[in-house]
Amino acid sequence: MHLIVGIDPGKTSAIACLDLSGRLVYATHKTFAGVDWFVEEISRVGIPSVIACDREPGEMARKISAAFNVGIHSPQREGSVLAKREYAKRFNINNPHERDACYAAIKAYNRFANKLHQAEHIARGQRISSVDEIQAKVLERYSIEEAINNKTANRR
After folding, report:
1. Has residue 138 got a pLDDT over 60?
2. Higher pLDDT, 83 or 104
3. Which of 37, 81, 90, 104 could form a disulfide with 52 if both were Cys (CB 3.0 to 4.6 A apart)?
4. C-alpha dihedral sign at 93, 97, 103, 105
């Protein structure tokens, strides 16, 4: 399963994983976590297509994205605590670190949602069973046509 992974690195770190339909599939946190913990936890759940942060990505986020060879998404500006609570409330997340990770994942999902829906619609219309793979390629900056026809992306 391909994922949009929100992370909140720090003294207490957290992960929130959404599937490519925007459903929360996993959230956890740990004190004094390193890159290895993030990589192991994420790998147990699925294959990340995007690593998302709720603020400007730091060294830890860059190392995690490099470990999976995926891009990083961060919002133009950091959301307020109130906004993060509202987003996380949909998923019944109360831990503040998981909430921040979930917020990051949701913001990334919202950024790509229209393209993901479009890719799903076209793939299903062409009776392609690997919709998740097509959507993951779209998140890697393939056009929908390139993803469906298994071509190399024209840009990076």
Report:
1. yes
2. 104
3. 104
4. negative
